[in-house]
Structure formats: C-alpha cells, structure tokens
Amino acid sequence: MQLLSPQDVADALRYPDLINALRNMFVAGCTQPLRHHHNLDEKDAQKGTLLLMPAWQQGGYLGLKTVTVMPENGARGLPSVQGNYLLFDATDGRALALMDAGELTTRRTASASALAASYLARKDAASMLMVGAGAMAPCLIRAHLAVRPLEEIKIWNHKRKKAQALADTLASAGLKVTVAPDLEAAARTADIISCATLSTKPLIRGAWLKPGAHLDLVGAFTPKMRESDDTAVKIASLFVDTFEGGLNEAGDIVLPLKAGTIQEKDIRADLYDLCTGRHAGRQNDDEITLFKSTGAALEDLAAAILAFEANR
Q: What is the 3-state secondary structure (H, E, C) of 166-210?
C-alpha cells in the first residue's frame, strides 16, 4: 500500500487537472451514500464533528474519507479540518493507498467551486472577493484563476492581520492580491465572491450583489450555519454540488427552505446537471448566480484516484 504525503497529494492535484477529473466523475457517476455526520458533543457543534464519506465505482476504485472538523483548533494553532483517505481496489478489496485528506479536501473543494464557476460565473469575470483567510482561501483563489481571467483579488477576514498575511504570501508568489478593509464595499464590486468561513450568521447580503455576480458558498457545512442572507438566496439562481447535500446539510439552503423564503423547485441544478449538459448554467450576463457546496464523496474519490495514479 502506498503512503502519500501532503506534498505528494498537492503535487498531483493541480487545479486544471483536478477540475477536469471532477467534471469527468460527475458525468460518469459513482455510488456515494449520504455521508455520516456525527457531532462529538450533541449540545455544542464547536466541540468537533466526525465525517465519514464512502464512495465507489463497480470494477474500479473504492474510497473512504475520515475527517474531523474542530472549529476551536485555530486557537490551538492547528488546522480546523484534518483527516485521511483510504483508497481500495473495488474488485478485490486490496488497500492501495493512504493519503492526507486535508490537502485532498481543500483542493477538491476549491476545484468543485471552480468547476461550478466555469458554468455559472460570467466568462469575463475579472474581480474576486475571498471572504475568509483560512486554509481554503488560497486554494479557492488559485482554483478560480484556473477557470476565469481574474485581474483583481481581494481578501476580507474578520481578523485583518490574517487577511494581510495571506495577501502578502500570495502577492509574493506573483498574484495581484490585496486586503479588503470593508466587506460591503468589496462585495458590491466583485464579479465572484467566494466564502469559506465557519460562520453561523449571514456575512453576505443579497442587497450587495451586483448584476452578473456569482456567489460561491463553501464554508457553512451544517444546517445551522450560513454565509448568506435570505435576500441573496431569493434573488439568485440557485445551484448546489449535489441535491442530497444541499437539501440536508447546507444551512444557506435548509434555513430559507424552512422559513418558506425559497422552495425546492427554486434550486435550478446540481453539478451532475451542469457537467452532463442537462442544465446550461448561466443564462445571461445580468443573472445573479449562487452555488452552495457541502462536499461530496464523489469529489474525494475523483481526487484520490488522480493522486494515486499520478504517484504510481
């Protein structure tokens, strides 16, 4: 069995290749039971969550991801998301590879958002606002750069020093990145807004979204978390990575559904529909689009296969 380090995974999962691998997997499909989601403390989700995500293709590969999400880890100087991915041969059950799930998860999550943006963001989208400055932020920026000609990138974080540190790091790598001192002002001018936070209250207001904006919501992964307000989901054309995840786990969708602000029929399509051509994506340059991802085991399997085959 191969052991793949975080660097092995990062080297294999380059964004154009990974975005294409995800697109192909959404077209081909696989078996992916709804992920197991266990709060370590039923009364306080901040104390940690365990996620188990299996997926397989008959006659191909079988994978299982185990992930812990510890929102309080920032204060400990540790990543909030950690885990491992175990890849098997689906025909004979042999364990083929064990790899770091942190690097795999951030890259596949960012690539899923970029895959959605390839259908939903304006083709001439030139400006991006990144809300959040954690481990997902640089991945989301680089993934979107792989699908759209971004010329201006701003980062906003509730701790400005953290946003500045990330902006400095990315700028030193040759990217044109600056800090957004005011969230509303930056949101009002952005072509693409990507959010990757652990917020339980709306950060982005629908009233701030300009015609043609694309809102990418990544961070809120439980029914009680959200990054957008009711106005945003009401005025936008809504898309999800999978209907199963969006309708059961995404607070940005679940909460307005419960409130009657939107109905299930308001969700236009998922990534299966977009990748297979059952839905064409953005309809015109003034349409406001919203993509909500919760993550899918299919995405992990596609990424793990790519990483394994690149390191054989």
A: HHHHHHHCCCCEEECCCHHHHHHHCCEEEECCCCCCCCECHHHCC
**Span 180-195, pLDDT tens digits:** 999 999 999 999 999 9
Terminal-residue alpha carbon distance, the chain: 11
Percent above pLDDT 70 for the chain: 100
Residue 64, strand partner residues: 54, 86
Question: 214 with 125: CB under 8 angstroms?
Answer: yes
* φ, ψ for residue 126, nearest 5 deg: -120, -10
> Is 111 within 8 Å of 15 (Cβ atoms)?
yes
3-state secondary structure 106-135: HHHHHHHHHHHHHHHCCCCCCEEEEECCCC
Domain 122-295 = CATH 3.40.50.720: yes
> Per residue in 261-309, pLDDT tens?
999 999 999 999 999 999 999 999 999 999 999 989 999 999 999 999 9
Q: What is the mean pLDDT of residues 220-225?
A: 84
Kindly report the average pLDDT of the chain as a whole number: 94
2-104+298-310, what's its fold?
A: ornithine cyclodeaminase, domain 1 (3.30.1780)
CATH 3.40.50.720 range(s) for the chain read: 122-295
Checking if the pLDDT of 42 tops 80, the result is no
Q: Which two tokens stand for residue 198?
A: 């652990």
Q: What is the DSSP letter of 228?
A: B
Q: How far, CA to CA in Å, does 2 sit from each of 5, 86, 307?
A: 10, 10, 11
C-beta of residue 239 within 8 angstroms of C-beta of residue 270: yes
Residue 222 has pLDDT above 90, yes or no: no
Report the distance separating Cα 68 and Cα 89, nearest Å.
25
